[in-house]
Amino acid sequence: MVKYILKRIAFALLTFMIIVSICFVLIKLLPITDAAQFGQDASVIETRRKLLGYYDPIPKQYVTFLTKTLFGGDWGVGEQIYRTKDVWEIFVEKLPPTMLLNVYSMVFAVPLGLAFGIYAALKKNKWQDHFISTSVMIIVSVPSYVYAFLVQYFLCYKLGWFPFLMKEGTDYLSWDMFVSVVPAVLSLSFGTIAGLTRYTRAELTEVLTSDFMLLARTKGLTKAQATTRHALKNAMVPIFPMIVGEFIGIISGSMIIESIFGVPGVGGLYIKSITGNQGNPDYNFFMLLSSFYTLIGLLSGIVIDLSYGFIDPRIRMGER
């Protein structure tokens, strides 16, 4: 198992370096905005550019990027956005709202997704199952930003239950902050609920028709006892890694939702780094956030693979 883990981590690091290197080369092929256009901030930006080797040939810039930025932690300062501000400090400042949004979304979506999936499996081929399955297909087919507009229109505009945008400030655990983030949480949760419902129903339906469930019933267990003691345990083996992957992967899917609801997180920061100022991207922010989202995606794959072995000992035995 240790050998397998080290192998997966090594391949993940190799993939990470390849993706980051491609992003670096492509972004460096774009023209650099003349520092003189930044006015009084020109001297600060020019100094940091020289420190990071902006005017060297690309191969030498790449070596400087690896030593001083990727491994040294100096990501430079903002140029097109958050001008002269340290890129890493801005990133750390923007990370809590994104994590808060995603934690609330998972706390809300996972129990509902599991409950709907279990209920649909227990009511297989009945009207409840058909209703839930049809609703899931509709929800999965619609992009998350459509739900964001619907939530804003009905809950924020028509009913006035929630504000349109997330409350400003850093009091992330206050009640007012929680109320202001509910619309974004709802918009982000629809897809997760639908996906988890469909997956749970499929896995539990298969387990309920297994031979060991028939044996459990013949031994005198009721349907409820057999379901809770045996069916749910076996069905959760592939479901739990999906939940872990959803929590990590949902961070990369919240960029549009953050922009719509004014969440001051890394998702909106990533979009701003691409659009920049008058179409000029911010190189430093783009590289940091591209590295972050690449790492998140690779970590989700590793966590999902490893969680199978920890949940089901038979998978570890098979690996040996």
How many helical stretches?
13
What's the CATH topology label of the largest domain?
Answer: MetI-like fold
Biggest pleated sheet: none
User: What's the order of the H and E elements?
Assistant: HHHHHHHHHHHHH
Spans of at least 5 consecutive residues whose pLDDT stays below 50 are none
Task: Round the Cα radius of gyration to an integer and report it.
Answer: 24 Å
Structural classification: mainly alpha
Q: What portion of residues belong to β-strands?
A: under 5%
Shape: globular
For the residues shown, what is the average pLDDT? 82
Number of strands: 0
> What is the CATH superfamily classification of the largest domain?
MetI-like
The percentage helix is: over 70%
In whole angstroms, the N-to-C terminal distance is 7 Å
CATH class identity of the largest domain:
Mainly Alpha
Q: What is the name of the CATH architecture of the largest domain?
A: Orthogonal Bundle
Q: In total, how many domains does the architecture comprise?
A: 2
Task: Explain what the structure shows.
- The protein is mostly helical.
- The chain folds into two domains: 2-88 and 281-296, no CATH class; 91-268, MetI-like fold.
- It is 74% helix and 0% strand.
- It contains 13 helices and no strands.
- α7 packs across α9.
- The longest helix has 36 residues, at 87-122.
- The protein starts with a helix and ends with a helix.
- The mean pLDDT is 82.
